[in-house]
């Protein structure tokens, strides 16, 4: 794998750390600004919405510059956002810093996926995308627990300062290691927008929303589920999330490896198994060992869908894939928000802390249905193309005979 992928992975590590570390530092941030925990929670919501809105916006703005330069600009924006968060004297500026940093998230992963895929041979594209996303998954194993520990020990501002430094390292890595690949000739914003008229692109994005949403339906409420149902101590949740992160790392690499060989079968297996494991989590959540194993599997199966789904969008939007790739990153965050909301509804309705697992299972199963539908439509389209292609010469020959 080219060294350029290491630079992309470092940027992804910083972005993944800043996205999730705030969840472990909310009490400290709330106390420092003298605001309630629910109000401090806007730092999570604001970031997610910024990703959804920033992915298409920043990618559209970047259509006039090279992909390398745009990646550097995005890392610069990420640095500014985290420095603002670290130095913010009031809560409003902290929230603004989170939003500024989030604007770089979707476009960085979207453009980075295109760059990563272009760096390698066609049969290794999904593996290259997975290598970049490894930075995001490792952030959940190393960056988030370490950042939480530092924030709780010496102050949350130090954590965001370190994250900003990671952004500087990522920026220097992109500048030094990523080749200056020019924009494809003749590709304009209207060409990028045209990709959204392709039903296969839309189906892939819907699979992203539903499939990864299934993961977050369960993981969003992992703390009350593990403490109230499984019987873990509150301090054990950090290590359970580390197990989840380890599953993400393994699943991401496996998904990238097998998606290059058989993309749609990989999606069938991972989405089907994810739906089954999420459904079983309503039972295994009552046992400590079984629940820990299940958490690893949810992380692995959930992230096994990421490289194939991202490559699916790139393949279907071939020729002008950058905007579609970035919007698909926003779709992951949209799925997270949707699943968290639905999970909260079933808990509020009195169905218990394990009820979101059923929500997740239904979402993952729905994504599997869309995957089967997508493949069926693709086969039908290929069949029609073969019929037209084989019929054209015969028709031309008949016309030639009639005019002769």
Automatic annotation (TrEMBL):
Origin: domain of life: Bacteria
CDD domains the UniProt entry points to: MFS_NepI_like
Record keyword Transit peptide present: no
Bilayer topology annotation: Multi-pass membrane protein
Residue intervals of the Major facilitator superfamily (MFS) profile domain: 4-382
Classification via PROSITE patterns: MFS (PS50850)
Annotated keywords: Cell membrane, Membrane, Transmembrane, Transmembrane helix
Principal place of residence: membrane
Membrane-crossing residue ranges in chain numbering: 42-61, 73-96, 102-121, 128-150, 156-178, 199-223, 229-254, 266-283, 289-309, 330-352, 358-377
Protein's cellular compartments: Cell membrane
Protein name as it appears in the record: MFS transporter
Species in which this protein is naturally found: Streptomyces cavernicola
Organism classification: Bacteria, Bacillati, Actinomycetota, Actinomycetes, Kitasatosporales
């Amino acid at each position: 794998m080219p060294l350029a992928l290491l630079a992309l992975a470092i940027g992804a590590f910083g972005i993944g750390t800043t996205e999730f570390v705030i969840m472990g530092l909310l009490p400290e941030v709330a106390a420092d600004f003298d605001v309630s925990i629910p109000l401090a929670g806007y730092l999570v919501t604001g970031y997610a919405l910024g990703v959804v809105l920033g992915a298409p916006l920043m990618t559209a703005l970047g259509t006039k510059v090279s992909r390398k330069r745009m990646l550097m600009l995005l890392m610069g924006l990420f640095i500014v956002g985290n420095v603002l968060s670290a130095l913010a004297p009031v809560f409003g500026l902290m929230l603004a810093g989170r939003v500024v940093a989030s604007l770089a998230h979707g476009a960085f992963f979207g453009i980075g996926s295109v760059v990563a895929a272009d760096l390698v041979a066609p049969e290794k594209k999904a593996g290259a995308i997975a290598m970049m996303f490894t930075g995001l998954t490792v952030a959940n194993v190393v960056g988030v627990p370490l950042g939480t520990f530092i924030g709780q020990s010496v102050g949350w501002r130090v954590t965001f300062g370190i994250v900003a430094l990671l952004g500087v390292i990522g920026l220097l890595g992109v500048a030094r290691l990523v080749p200056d690949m020019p924009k494809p000739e003749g590709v304009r914003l209207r060409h990028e927008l045209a990709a959204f008229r392709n039903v296969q692109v839309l189906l892939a994005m819907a699979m992203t929303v539903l499939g990864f949403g299934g993961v977050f339906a369960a993981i969003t409420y992992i703390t009350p589920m593990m403490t109230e149902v499984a019987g873990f101590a509150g301090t054990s949740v950090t290590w359970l999330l580390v197990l989840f992160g380890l599953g993400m790392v393994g699943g991401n690499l496996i998904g990238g490896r097998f998606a290059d060989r058989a993309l749609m079968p990989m999606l069938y297996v991972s989405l089907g198994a994810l739906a089954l494991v999420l459904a079983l989590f309503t039972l295994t959540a009552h046992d400590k060992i079984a629940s820990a194993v299940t958490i690893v599997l949810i992380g692995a199966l959930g992230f096994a869908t990421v490289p194939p789904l991202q490559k699916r969008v790139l393949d279907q939007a071939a020729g002008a894939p950058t905007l579609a790739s970035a919007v698909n990153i926003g779709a992951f965050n949209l799925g997270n928000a949707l699943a968290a909301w639905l999970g909260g509804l079933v808990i509020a309705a009195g169905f218990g802390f394990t009820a979101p697992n059923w929500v997740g299972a239904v979402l993952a199963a729905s994504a599997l249905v869309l995957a089967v539908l997508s493949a069926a439509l693709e086969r039908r389209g290929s069949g029609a193309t073969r019929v037209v292609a084989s019929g054209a010469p015969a028709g031309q020959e008949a016309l030639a005979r009639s005019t002769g």
